[in-house]
Specification:
- This protein is of the alpha/beta class and 423 residues long.
- The longest helix has 22 residues.
Length: 423
């Protein structure tokens, strides 16, 4: 059988030579064939394990990470898939695919390996692109989790409503447990599908909600039903992610003290509000890649008595071009120093991407364009003083950068920042 990697390479070349309309006509059949072929090739491995699919616009990776740690603390054998990497019990390796949700054969092979290793649960991020490409076909989900919904991938899906419909598919095919963010304005779009059990969560409402909430940029505290959690990661949004993980654990009868202890023992979430350094000035890496999340991160980190220095880019490849001027406008409003740079240009002109970000920026001072991302990070760190915060967004814990020619080059914002801090 032809491996999916080879098929993907062939597809990349085919897309360059045949009319777009012809390619798009046959594309769904190609994706369906791969999905069912992969499931059949590996014997429908999702059967016999409990698959927990987490979907939404932001917070998926953190929620998957938290669910995994809680289930492991309960004694379960767990596998996980997402942008933070792959995990089967104690074995972990990075996700280098530039796909949060793997392709069909890779996904089914992973599930087969998890099943062979004796895993009870598989926790995975389910993306709208993955659903649009039918990567979920042949996979049986036990629980579907809705974390939130915001505008994203509009070019890909054609509209926000189509984006929502893609996300809804997970809840249509999952019949056992639905876990839903009661604080989200669009919860009704996901709460209308039948399930054996439904559990809601939220800061302000829901079955699982906190009391005694205290949150800063670097840590937070709250209680659920009297059980105290001390999170070593900051931001109210991370409390919401923790509540989502708590709700999933509740669905599988994990005891509250175990949940609270597992959450309190988390040291950090790789690439998610991750502090590379705290003093004398903070250096933070975050994956923020939507206007909402960028604004939340900037507001969470903005110091009272220092400057917010931002290293900012935007994804290329025609992805969500509408976000670029909004990124610029948010940085213009909240940052003291802005350094615009490369992120993942794919086949687009890096300078054209930056030009579109600059369209949302009114200032001319305290604004620099440094295309080389390593040089941009170094510049941000070199100008930082005591009390400042340097924040690099868009890459998070990713270990590669997508550039022209369908190539990926090794990359790590965290490691590059550390290299400048130790000089």
């Amino acid at each position: 059988m032809i491996h999916e990697t080879l098929l993907d390479k062939i597809l990349y070349q085919v897309k360059k030579i045949i009319p777009k309309s012809v390619f798009e006509f046959f594309q769904p059949a190609y994706h369906r064939l791969l999905a069912w072929g992969g499931a059949m090739r590996y014997g429908f491995p999702s059967h016999g394990m409990k698959l927990i699919g987490v979907t939404g616009t932001k917070g998926k990776s953190t929620t998957v990470y938290m669910i995994t740690k809680i289930l492991e603390a309960s004694g379960a054998k767990v596998a996980a898939i997402g942008s933070l990497g792959f995990k089967i019990k104690d074995k972990e390796w990075p996700n280098t695919l530039k796909q949060t949700m793997p392709g069909r054969f890779r996904l089914q092979k992973f599930l087969a390996e998890a099943k062979k290793a004796g895993c009870d649960f598989v926790v995975l991020e389910v993306t709208s692109e993955g659903i649009k490409q039918y990567r979920h076909l042949g996979t049986k989900f036990d629980t579907a989790v809705f974390v939130n919904i915001h505008r994203e991938h509009l070019e890909n899906h054609g509209s926000f409503e189509n984006y929502i419909k893609a996300k809804q598919e997970l809840f249509k095919i999952t019949k056992h447990v639905h876990v839903l963010n009661a604080d989200d304005a669009r919860i009704a779009d996901f709460n209308k599908f039948p399930a054996d059990k439904k559990i809601t969560f939220g800061i302000n409402q829901g079955d699982i909600r906190p009391t005694d909430v205290l949150a800063s940029e670097s840590e937070s505290e709250f209680k659920v039903n009297g059980q105290k959690v001390h999170l070593n990661i900051g931001g109210v949004f991370n409390i919401l992610n923790a509540l989502g993980a708590w709700a999933v654990a509740t669905a599988y009868d994990v005891e509250p003290p175990i949940i609270a202890k597992a959450l309190s023992e988390l040291e950090t979430i790789p690439g998610r509000l991750e502090f590379v350094q705290r003093q004398p000035f903070a250096v933070v890496v975050d994956y923020a890649h939507t206007p909402d999340s960028l604004e939340i991160i900037y507001k969470t980190l903005k110091p009272l008595n220092g400057r917010l220095i931002v290293v900012l880019g935007a994804c290329g490849g025609g992805r969500d071009k509408w976000k670029r001027p909004e990124f610029g406008a948010i940085a213009d409003r909240l940052a003291d120093e802005i350094i615009l740079t490369d992120e993942d240009p794919y086949e687009e002109s890096p300078m054209e991407i930056i030009k579109e970000i600059k369209a949302g920026i009114k200032r001319h001072e305290h604004l620099q364009v440094i295309l080389d991302r390593k040089e941009a990070i170094g510049k941000a760190i070199s100008i930082a003083q005591a009390g400042d915060v340097v924040i690099m967004t868009g890459k998070g814990s990713e270990i590669s950068m997508a550039v022209a020619g369908n190539k990926k080059i090794p990359w790590s914002d965290r490691d590059i920042a550390r290299s400048f801090l130790t000089r």
